[in-house]
Amino acid sequence: QSPAPAMHESDPYFANAEDVLKSYALDYDATEHFTNDVIFNTALTNPCCLPCFLPNWYLCLKANLRDSIRAHHVAITRDGIKFVVDKHKTGCRLECQEKGKVSKTVPFDKITDCDVEEPAGASGPCCCLVPNVLSYVNVDTASSPPGGHELHMAGLKDPNQFKKDVWAMKRGEPVDGIDSSVMGAAPIEMKREAEGGGWGKGALFAGGGSGAGGGGGSSEKASLLRELREQSAFMRQHHNQQSGLLLDIAAAIREQTGVLKSRLNNYK
User: Which of 14, 52, 181, 249 is most buried, by the most CB atoms less than 10 A from its CB?
Assistant: First the structure.
């Protein structure tokens, strides 16, 4: 007999959040223990820093780290992934040094990748390494910073379930633990198909779609047209900037060529 699936563990932080469909628990204890070990072991390899590090560690740094880790929360809403870093203490733990709450939502239709990094290897100084025990979830969009991620989350208790749910929400498919009646609108591609108009020839620029209910997508088409115009304007601006840069480079080359020619003539 196959074992029963593990019960999903939610985050009580979102218990009263009306917009949250499903929340995900983070393993704060494991994250705190791992991070503490890496930082402390690194400090031990620098004896010169210990007289300053140890008092700060026990007075402020360790508690700040604990508060920062436990301030992280993640959930999914109808619109996307909701990532919250709650208010927490920093610095010398004075009230004037508190860091305010930060909330960020990554829309499902903007997500280009969502993957899980399983723990492997070790971190820290070579003489006292700490085994890596945390999984990381990376979420990317087209606007992700170069070499970085839109979201980089450590310590999710069930990262693979989170990844599965994100892709299901993006595709408009059922998600475990979420009532399908409250999931909101289906993805754009599915809505177009349901409207009956599709993207047939000329549908993008037509006043109404073909077939029953085709006119229902007129506002969506208008929105897409505005987006296309904005993208076109951006491309023209970018092209003009590039053209101006090339003209400046060409002018500089011509100027340097003239200088070299005059010097050669002087030598003759």
Answer: 14
Least confident interval from 3-7, 62-66, 198-202, 215-219: 198-202
What's the CA angle centered on 139, arms 133 and 145, to 5 degrees? Answer: 110
pLDDT tens figures, 176-235? 888 876 665 445 444 444 444 443 433 333 444 444 444 445 555 566 666 666 666 656
CA dihedral 201, 202, 206, 210 (to 10 degrees): -10
Q: What is the value of pTM for the model shown?
A: 0.66
Q: In sequence order, what are the beta bridge partners of 102?
A: 85
Q: Are the C-beta atoms of 93 and 42 separated by less than 8 Å?
A: no
Give the pLDDT score at 91.
Answer: 93
What are the C-alpha distances in Å from 217 to residues 187, 188, 201? 13, 10, 15
Question: Which residues fall within 8 angstroms of residue 109, CB to CB, at 6 or more apart?
Answer: 170, 187, 188
Quote the CA–CA distance of 152 and 154 in Å, as a whole number: 7
Structure tokens at 105: 């939502």
